Amino acid sequence: MQLIKTIKKMKDISCYLKKKEFSLGFVPTMGYLHEGHSSLAARSKKQCDITVLSIFVNPAQFGPGEDYEKYPRDLERDKRIAKEAGVDYIFYPSAEEMYGSRYGTFITVKGLGDIMCGKFRPGHFDGVSTVVAKLLNIVSPDKAYFGQKDYQQTIIIRKMVSDLNLKPEIIVCPIVREPDGLAMSSRNKYLNPNERKNATILYRSLEEAAANIKLAWKYLDGNIKPAGTKTSGINLNEIKKRATDRLLENEVVSEVDYFEIRNAENLEEIKDLDVFYSDNPKAGIVIASAIRMGGTRLIDNMII
Ligand code: PAF
Q1: Nearest to 264 by CA among 303, 218, 208, 211
Q2: Catalytic one among 32, 33, 37, 98?
Q3: Which tens digits make up the pLDDT trace of 125-161?
Q4: Catalytic site residue 124?
């Protein structure tokens, strides 16, 4: 496994591999790797000849007062995990290498970057789209792998890649969870033992909402309506409110940024499940939430 620090060297290697007709898989990360990242690398290894993993804590996607400075960094640990996962090259540029001193070009994916997480982290997704576009240009992979945990990010990246006619196929891999259900994340490191113990509330509240929606699905599919109604009788606002209340009742949840139920393909809000289902019988639904526990922001989602 080789560590590459410059854009030129990474481009040269990618060019060389192309000439040799090797297929290239790419796993962009901000480091402090966990099993979620290893699962992306494993998928890339299965599907591509060579796997490149980038480690870059991207300053452009952090807002003022966010955790850019304290974001966990441990290159030696990451090298060990990446090697075990079968990564061939780690691309590890500095902020100076990526943005220089007079950087001026940013990518905005309209309509998708200012909802959900974007509402609470203004500019975050412009920073993500920009760095991902740069990384895809530098590494020039055939396939790029992202985790479903950052669901909104995956939708934005897919849209950007399609709108800008970028080359790679975007592959989204399932969320990897701790045994108690907490989605793996580098930021879980910030949680104190009591917060960590309580953090599963996020997963549990998504599961409960999903169970209610699946029930409605069953009603609608089987045409079994609750007595006296013409619909599934499921009210999404009630489901969202119940979940939010339940989250806020937890002793360590300080804020619920959002708890939303949206079209899994385009993130459009679903107001009425019955109308949505009859208009889009095959479409998926994403239930997504972001909460704060003290200084830590946690996100999670479920697709049904
Ligand atoms: O998901 C992440 O870790 C980051 O947002 C990404 C895609 C590596 C861009 O910095």
Answers
A1: 303
A2: 37
A3: 999 999 999 999 999 999 999 999 999 999 999 999 9
A4: no
